[in-house]
Amino acid sequence: MNTLANLLTSLSLFCGFASVIFSLEGQFTLASWAIILAVVFDGLDGQVARLNQASSEFGKQFDSLVDVVVFGMAPSILGYTFVYKDFHIFATLSLFIYLLASVVRLAQYNLTPSDKMTTFFYGLPTTVSGGFLASFILICRKYAQSPPPLIFLLLVLLLAFLMVSRVRYLNLDGLRLALKKSIMVVLVIAAIAAIFFPQVVIFLFFTFYIVLAPFAVVRQEAK
Predict the structure, then answer these.
(1) In the chain, N or C terminus with fewer CB closer than 10 Å?
(2) Which pTM does this prediction carry?
């Protein structure tokens, strides 16, 4: 069992828990950043496990259970408390559908043989959907204060649909293959831009991935 990888997964869980606490306290910016930090820990734990050649069934199940909390439940609570101050039936149903879709997405992932996902996933990863919602709220906090409720609910339902769809999205190996030699240039430019406009850079990263990654999968297969 990879202790370091599981520790990183636990840190991701702590970030999700902290996000829920911040949301309930009305600290929406901190709640959003906690989810973004969880995205980082989630990306690191799998890479550490692979580098140490210590991937295990326990680690896979542990990671999925944590992802339900961090990228399913935490963004749902954050979105609800940020946009709606009182009980709202359509918001409740929409965000429950989002949460349910994240659970279904992770269950499907666990049942899909790894040799079927060498460079891509089926369905939008919960990490990206949760990170996108968090970055969207960061943008709203900085520039617009509060999004129109209808727009927010439609966005939530779109993410839910993409998570349970058969649309293929590049995984980390697929991203490295797609970017190839330009990956360092992209990272440097993004890092410099993030110093001045962190919310914008993070939001654009998730947006470009959601929109462009499926086309990159098709392009790779055409070569």
Answers:
(1) C
(2) 0.90
